[in-house]
Amino acid sequence: MEERITLQVARYRPEQESKPTFEEYEVPLREEWAVLDGLNYVKDRLDGTLSYRWSCRMGICGSCGMTVNGEPVLTCAAFLSDFAPGPVRVEPLRNFPVIRDLVIEMTDFVHKLGRVKPWIVADDEAPPEGAHGEYLQTPEELEEYHQYSMCINCMLCYSACPVYGLDQSFVGPAAIALAQRYNMDSRDAGNALRMAELSGHDGVWGCTFVGECTSACPKGVDPAGAIQRYKVTAATEAAKSLLLPRAAEK
Amino acid sequence: MENVQRHGYDVVVIGAGGAGLRAAIEARLAGARTAIISKSLFGKAHTVMAEGGAAAAMGNVNSNDSWQVHFRDTMRGGKFLNNVRMAQLHAQEAPERIWELESYGALFDRTPDGKISQRNFGGHEYPRLAHVGDRTGLELIRTLQQKIVSLQQEDFAGSGSYDSRLRVFDETTITDLLVTDGAVAGAFGYVRQTGELIRFEAPAVVLATGGIGRSYRVTSNSWEYTGDGHALALRAGGQLINMEFLQFHPTGMVWPPSVRGILVTESVRGDGGVLTNSEGRRFMFDYIPEVFRDYYAQAPEEADRWYTDPDNHGRPPELLPRDEVARAINAEVKAGRGTPAGGVYLDVSSRLSAEVIRRKLPSMYHQFRELADVDITKQPMEVGPTCHYVMGGVEVDAETTATASVFGLFAAGEVTGGMHGANRLGGNSLSDLLVFGKRAGEHAAAHAAAAARSPVADADLATAAETALVPLERSGGENPYALQQELQSVMGNLVGIIRRGSELAEALEKLAELRERVAKVGAPGGRAYNPAWHLALDLRHMLVVSECTARAALQREESRGGHTREDFPAMNPAWRQVNLVCSVPGDHAEVRVTRQPVPAMPPDLAALFQPDELAKYLTPEELKDPTDAH
Q1: CATH code, residues A107-249
Q2: Chain B partners of A153 at a C-beta cutoff of 8 Å?
Q3: Which ipTM was obtained for this model?
Q4: Contacts of B213 in chain A (CB under 8 A)
Q5: A219: DSSP letter
Q6: Which tens digits make up the pLDDT trace of B244-302?
Q7: So what's the architecture of A4-104 in CATH?
Q8: Going by DSSP bridges, is the β-strand pair B393-394/B240-241 parallel, antiparallel, or unpaired?
Q9: CA of B108, closest CA in chain A: separation in Å?
């Protein structure tokens, strides 16, 4: 007889229940099955109404983030066998409103994206120096910000962030890391433009450096490192703006 | 009648992958009020999974490259069935689209002197793929997404509303196009989260819905890929061409079973990976077809020297076009020389240092470590063919991407046919969706500015609403998941990599039976975020598109690119002159397949090939006078 494991899955159907409940499903415990395979088994064989998001199955689209046994993970990359003998508790990502079952509302993040201006702000005084308008950027310059570009917008860092949990106006880990991805890009001249947002009330100073975002990140982006790094930049800039008037008086 | 949300736009783009986003950006830049309809969340589209890169003859790594060479490679890869004008425009405009993407903020791996680096890929004569590691699709989608956010910020500054000129409707699925007297009037669908019905009214619609791979069990495609745009075009009166040509990517994961089909990027071979069978033999040397013999190495020693001295040595046969490699792997496994899990070995560990592998192929390193517990710096991977891409699709005008039969209907990206002929080269799809996405947006916007708006007919709305809701109301109907699995077995077993006339005929019988059953599909549960209901509606698209593939495959009695007939194993120049065109004449009619001549190659493009190469593809009559070839 095939080994099985129990999934305790959070269900929330607003038309029939006022708050989430748990339902248990038995699924095959196969060594190579991810939690997502277990959920797909439930949907295909046991209950076709179970709602959750998924897409690529290979950890690149960032759709299938959920809370598994209390931790924010990509369910396509979390293996059932690691939770044996079970049960495995599957809940929506924390810190977000739940729409239905395991599906969360995350449009807040899309609005935050725009606020940090995640695009190259061209430097009118230093146009691209290569042929055909191509920028020249050495592999070393690329290396500077490359890590911060690996983000897949999976929201695990927001789910792990205690600051965001208390105050949703905090710009948050992924958006700050993305801002740093552009700030540190040698082709970009938008540092000053992003400063108001990043060092403002909802920016980096909200972070208490718990580091949960970095532990949760499935792509090694290290948002906590990005935030710390920006705090140094912001502090230096602030100090400079204090010093400048005096220097000008000389 | 049922309450239906109502929205009016100039241009409605269906699909939010690379082609759709690029089209929407261009339409908005041209001044059109534009809606983007995304089946999944904004930014999660299938393009995100593309790994290798975007092909563009920028000549950054080898200055001998040019659009002419890229065009030539594309035609060879497509076995000369390509729409020549599309292949030409694609090769000419791809570099500009890449530089433009960089100006939006995309990052690329760099050459030591700071230029955008380019990598080798199957069928490309020179290193040509602009890339970032092995996650190029993610960067492309992210960049386009962020460009859209930046345009919305500009609009906010002007109008006080982010959505005033460019709005994303995510988790929204279109089930029918609304067409009045042969002209596009809008589109109809539902909102996933609430189950509400929704209608868009617009004089121009761009289809950018991608492919059809979910009709196969072993596929690299994700759940969204159910041929929606193909089916929408058919039902609206449009035509599909080349539907018999499917690309089975040679290297999908074959183990463990739960991830079977997931892509292993061609970059592994481009960067030096070799294919071996269970006897340890580099078998690809046994499968170099006559038409490619001059360009590929005959023995491992020569192939290995190519990596450092490409000008004086033949290419490794691992870098043949995908159709050739997929067939070779299939043949090795069939001959009993496969791995235990039914694939072959792809090894990079004996070729590159662990450090180089981790740097050049980071996603592959993690994918195998996490999903298969294989360390690709120490062990070979097990790989086999997986359904990856459909070459066939909506017939469009090369310049404008407009369909001829539905006024105001445009299409770009994988949903179109013609660009890639019988087989697509790796790297040509990211460039395709940038080049033709831009063209689609530009021309759809121009059309919207000039054309009168067609009214939506009440009867069409009522029919669309009824069609969408009926599975929910049917109690005791067939289970959509079970039906999808049956469809996948029919397509995988009878319309797979290697095809036979008798099996294709059998497939058509089974598809007819399935069609009856899909008409009786039921989905229990409510309307909000109900995946069984969504699949029940997707199945309608999958069925008609599968029928196109099976019918065209039965008619084409030859083997070419992504269509291999065991009973007609040779390529036949007479068939190169023929496009098979699918249409659906009435509402519930069978798919009709007609034949249409492939337009001749203009002399200036024909002159890019040696006469003896053309002789391998063209008929003697065509060779006599290439300007008069039909």
Answers
A1: 1.10.1060.10
A2: 43, 142
A3: 0.91
A4: none
A5: T
A6: 999 999 999 988 777 888 889 888 998 899 999 999 999 999 999 988 898 999 999 99
A7: Roll (3.10)
A8: antiparallel
A9: 8
